[in-house]
Amino acid sequence: MKVLVVDSGGRGHSIAWQFKNDPNVKEVICTPGNAGIALDVRCENARTNEEILELAKKEKADLVFIGPESPLTKGIVDLFASEKIPIVGPQRKAAILEGSKAYTKMLCREIGVPAAEFEVFDNPEKAKDYIEYVKYPVVVKADGLAQGKGSIVCSDAKDAINAINHLMVEKVFEEAGQKVVIEKRLYGTEISFFVFTDGDALAPMPVAQDYKRAYDNDEGLNTGGMGSYSPHRLEGDELTRLVCEKVAMPLIKGFREKEGVPYKGILYCGLMLVGDIPHLLEANVRFGDPEAEVILPRLKTPLTDISFQIINGVLSEKRAEWSQDFYCDVVAAAGRTKQMKHGRSKGWYPGYPARYGKGYPISGLENIQDPDCKIFFAGVSNSETKGMVTDGGRVLHIVGRGNTLQDARTVAYANIEKIHFDGMRYRTDIGKE
Ligand code: AMP
Ligand code: GLY
Description:
Helices cover about 30% and strands about 30% of the residues. It is α+β, with helices and mostly antiparallel strands. It has 4 domains: about 1-90, Rossmann fold; about 115-185, Dna Ligase, domain 1 (2-Layer Sandwich); about 190-315, ATP-grasp fold, B domain (D-amino Acid Aminotransferase, Chain A, domain 1), CATH 3.30.470.20; about 325-425, Glycinamide Ribonucleotide Synthetase, Chain A, domain 4 (Alpha-Beta Complex), CATH 3.90.600.
């Protein structure tokens, strides 16, 4: 079987890697991929949905698997349906669960999925009045897609007013922030919970912990994720039952009943456990990144089998099996660097998730020979003169495996120390409990 994976980062690399080790698979192609993914599988340069369809047809792909949300919200599954090429992911109408936070909050309210109290605004003055009125700390969220940076967690009303100005007045995320959701800030334990679903049945996955803030001790700005680990200490039948019953199943059923179309693919529930009750913070229509990098290595069932069960609507026939190994992913990110032009300093870039430099050579990768360590490549490219160089904010995912969380994190940290690029920065507390 030939599988086409659509992604450009570490999540895509872990998906491609999973398929590469799948006994049903002869060849994996990744588009657009990156210079590091290309060390494992062939990469092609199709970027728009139409180009991806052309590539899938040219390559006679037997299965297409989508990593990020953007091709899904733009309707890639609907496009492929007309060509009858098997593809994993929700159709455009169902991708609204990630495409509009306001939609998903309203659905939760209608069907009784636990979530923070909220209101939706398209007028900044009314939004500010609401903040003064509610008194409690809030989170201000751009309704649309904003590359994981559209939610601003506020400590007080002043922060929240600034957030409204940022999203609605300065329009930093353009039309994604025309409408905002203002919700009550919740306190508790945050986890990432994923299910496979064929629109009817669901198969839960293990639980992962994502580290969203840029710096140790959860300080600094929100990022796409600076590291992760799995299994989570709370993982188990009881938590799985609770989340499936209270959140995942009602969402899948509620969506189908309301819109008349099934939600198929992967559903990502970003949850806050408040006491025992899982509250939905966000729904995403794909694997998380860096969660996929620690969950997929635990999958023992071929991902092709699960993919076709989703596509054919027979997911309930078989349960996915998972190993009990621990995986810990530490992200090497683009940190603070001095910018030079013609030998003169242009000042400093602060580093990811704010502005960062690119094109720094990456050294030391050849020193990683540990069979318990795998690198999933994210923001990298090839330079003719410098070899592999940095090309993004999150550059590398260094994933360690172990029989305990402590072992897995020791492997990840021992190996990340062998790697170097200018400005390289990572959190030192991933998996530290
Ligand atoms: P979102 O874009 O909705 O996933 O939010 C990004 C991050 O902001 C989440 O992963 C949480 O860490 C935090 N967050 C979102 N909503 C809330 C909330 N209601 N209370 C506390 N933290 C939140
Ligand atoms: N790790 C968070 C995300 O993938 O959205």
